[in-house]
Amino acid sequence: MSESWAFYRSSRNWIRIITACQSREYAIRISITVEEVITVSKKIFAYAGVNNPERSYTVRCIQKSIELLRERMDIELNLYTNQELPIQNCQGCLRCFFYGECVLDSQDGFHKIKQEMQNSDFIILGSPVYLHNVSGYMKTFIDRLSYWSHIFALRNKNGLVIATADCSGTYEVNEYLNKALTCFGCSVVGKIELKSCYGINEELYRICAAKIYTGLIKDAKSNEVLEERFHATKQLMIYRENRKVDDEMGSELRYWKETGMLYAGSFSEVLEKGGWKNVC
Ligand SMILES: Cc1cc2nc3c(=O)[nH]c(=O)nc-3n(C[C@H](O)[C@H](O)[C@H](O)COP(=O)(O)O)c2cc1C
Question: Which superkingdom heads the taxonomic lineage of this protein's source (predicted)?
């Protein structure tokens, strides 16, 4: 009699399954026991580009949606705004592109935030509309992560974008937030537009919660834009490889080699082999 066990991941839990297999000539008996159920909490990282969280529609939408979601699964929400995370503007030194690190990170603690994002199951970016664009807080947040667009640091994650306005500009803001997350390798499963002139109600929170739920139970998938970004960036890495110069841009190429991304034929393949090391 041989016995083995495996973990099976359902939408909410990890379940340990023990299989016992008995083979006697032509008769094979397999018994399966569900031994224990381990509840796993899903981690959600959210950044809202606002300065007044206590009266922000963006923040309220994120919090209310997560409250609804908690009726179905355990969620750990790490939500930041400019109040908890006052980060400095990018100085344009390009060090992050050259060496994979930012000189400001240790000064304002942004390195911890980056780690938290990478350790999360789902990413939410929400911004108020400021003259048909993202808020300055959100722009600074995205600028500080720009080099992630060369290494797809958020690959294998799903995400959601939220734009909040009085009446206009939400489409433009969501397009930009979607583009930023996609450039970081994240698969965006939904775009939520909140317009206070049309009323912000429970129904919107339900839609938002449903999108997040889908993104939590489904694996991240590639799409046309992710493939296009992947092939363009891979071409850049091959160009650097062929130059055989281990110059200051070498850290990105090393990353592509160490993670195995350089040898993948498509971004889908990168996602399928999700076990590749994420060494950001
Ligand atoms: C500087 C500034 C620019 C704004 N520009 C627009 C705009 O172009 N269109 C719009 O509908 N609302 C605009 N608003 C209103 C905000 O988008 C709206 O108040 C939104 O609810 C803010 O998000 P929050 O409640 O999460 O802070 C602007 C507000 C500010 C402060």
Answer: Bacteria
